[in-house]
Structure formats: C-alpha cells, structure tokens
Design brief:
Helix content of chain A: 25-40%
Number of strands of chain B: 6
Strand order of the largest sheet of chain B: 3-2-1-5-6-4
Largest sheet of chain B: 6 strands, mixed
Order of helices and strands of chain B: HHEEEEEE
Structural class of chain B: alpha+beta
Number of helices of chain A: 4
Radius of gyration of chain A: 28 Å
Number of helices of chain B: 2
Oligomer: heterodimer
Order of helices and strands of chain A: HHEEHEEHEE
Shape of chain B: elongated
Chain lengths: 154, 129
C-alpha cells in the first residue's frame, strides 16, 4: 500500500468512528427521553386519599349536600371504611382524634415493613396528613386525619 | 466522471442522514403500535378512572374512547384488557370498589372501543353506550 492508500484507510477509520459515536449518541438520547413504562404510583395513592375526603359514601359529612373536607364521626368506623375501600391487595390505616381504624388490618401489619420493594411481589406505601373539620353530633372542631396505605405492586 | 474525496464524503453524509431518519421513524412507529404498552395504559387508566369516579361529589358521565377494539373484563375488582391478536396475554390493573353505593359493573364487554362510566344517585354504572 502506498502512502496515499494508508492515509485513506486512516481517514475512513476516523469517519467510521465518528459515525459510531453519532449512532450511539442518538440511541442514548432517545433511551433517556423516551417513556416506555406507565408509572401511576402517586396517582393511585392520591385517588384513594381523595375518596376518603370527598366521597359522600366514605367519610364526608352529608345533609342536603356533601361537604368535602368535613368528616362525619358517625361514618368513622371500620364497617364504612371496609366497604368504601374494597380491595384485597391493599391495607389502609386511618388515624383521627387518637382513634385508629384499619382496612385489611392483617395485610397492613404483615406488609408495612416491606414498603418500597420494587417489582411484582413487592409493596409500595404512602402516608398523608389532612387538615379536616370533624362533625361530631352537633359540634364541629378541627383536627388532622392521617391515612397510610400499603399496596401490593402490580 | 471522477468523484473527488469531498464529493464522496457528501454522498456518505447524505446516505447517513437518510438512514438515521428512516431508522428513527421506523423505531417510533414500532413503539407507538406496541400492543402491550397500550393495553397496560388502558388497564391502568380505566381502573384509576373508576376509582376517581367514586369520589365525584355531583353527577358524572365519562365517555372513554379507545383507539382500537378490545375485550374488557371487570371481575374481582380488576380491569383486564385484551385484544384478540396472536398470543397476546392481555394486561390488568386493580381498582378499589366502593360497596356502600350501588354498582352496576358488567363482568365483561367484548370487542368495544368505547365505554361509558356514570356515577349518579343510583350508583356507579359502566356500560358500552
């Protein structure tokens, strides 16, 4: 191979290297910005929290209309909560005015220590505190409702 | 006609650009038609939509359109969705049923591309019209 031939080989090797860098860069950028999985973790928890506060069939006080954010103490019992959150793949703990109630208590207590284990068979947990008004018989007072949910990953 | 180095380089660049654009379009097209992804999306979206509907304070009616025909199953507090295509296993996602109010949720709806979710005084109703 003469001198020109050698320089051509070096030049084309250099160009091929640039080509590979361009290809891998494009692949890397797409893989970083492409969304290929559906992550609904926060939404799942917030939908449950909102049901407790907003639904007339759960804890919200109701006379002629529903009062979202006002908790009816008559509804704050395990029967209402159990029927309001019917799902065998989650456990929920409600705390209000020093009173603790559970939905799927066994599930909650056996899996609360396994929070944040990713993948199928794992569990995810979230807790949230709400400032609420509490309607107890004829009196209304303020307080905090704490909800903690343990969910099985799907 | 004899090509010089510069001309060859421009042709290579042109071919490279066309190749990258075609690969990109093809890749995006394949991903967008990914059946597993769309089934996973619809299963989660519908389950969470049912969950959210229970929280509505007033009357609610949602018409939910899908971009293809699917078989839907609502058994055991779970939305399962499957398109009759090859060895497709389908996808599913749990929803949290409110058993205090009346529910009219069918066990299955076959080959539909639209469902209607209503939450009114008489309870939550899911139907295909």
């Amino acid at each position: 191979m003469n001198k020109k031939g050698v320089s051509d080989v070096i030049l084309w090797t250099y160009r091929l290297l640039i080509l590979l860098v361009v290809f891998f860069s494009i692949g890397f950028i797409i893989s970083q910005y492409g969304v290929f999985d559906v992550d609904t973790k926060d939404l799942e928890f917030n939908v449950l929290f909102n049901r407790a506060i907003y639904s007339k069939n759960c804890l919200s006080y109701e006379d002629e209309r529903v009062y979202p954010g006002i908790i009816d103490m008559d509804k704050f019992n395990e029967i209402v909560l159990k029927n309001c959150f019917k799902n065998d793949n989650q456990g929920i703990k409600f705390s209000l005015e020093g009173k603790e109630l559970f939905v799927n208590k066994d599930f909650y207590e056996s899996n609360i220590f396994l929070c944040n284990i990713p993948g199928k068979g794992g569990f995810k947990c979230k807790s949230k505190q709400f400032f609420v008004l509490i309607k107890d018989k004829d009196s209304v007072k303020s307080g905090f409702l704490n909800i903690k949910v343990v969910k099985k990953n799907e | 006609m004899e090509w010089n180095n510069k001309q060859v380089l421009y042709v290579v660049y042109l071919v490279l650009i066309v190749f990258i654009i075609i690969s990109l379009i093809n890749w995006v097209n394949t991903k967008s038609k990914n059946l597993d992804y769309s089934q996973e999306y619809y299963a989660r979206d519908l389950a969470l939509l049912i969950d959210s509907s229970y929280s509505s304070v007033g009357d609610l009616e949602i018409k939910y359109k899908m971009n293809d025909d699917f078989n839907l199953n609502f058994e055991n507090n779970k939305v399962s969705i499957k398109k009759l295509e090859g060895l497709n296993e389908g996808n599913s996602f749990y929803f949290t049923k409110n058993e205090i109010q009346a529910n009219s949720i069918p066990e299955r709806l076959d080959q539909i591309n639209q469902i209607v979710i209503r939450n009114k005084e008489d309870g939550l109703v899911i139907s295909d019209e």
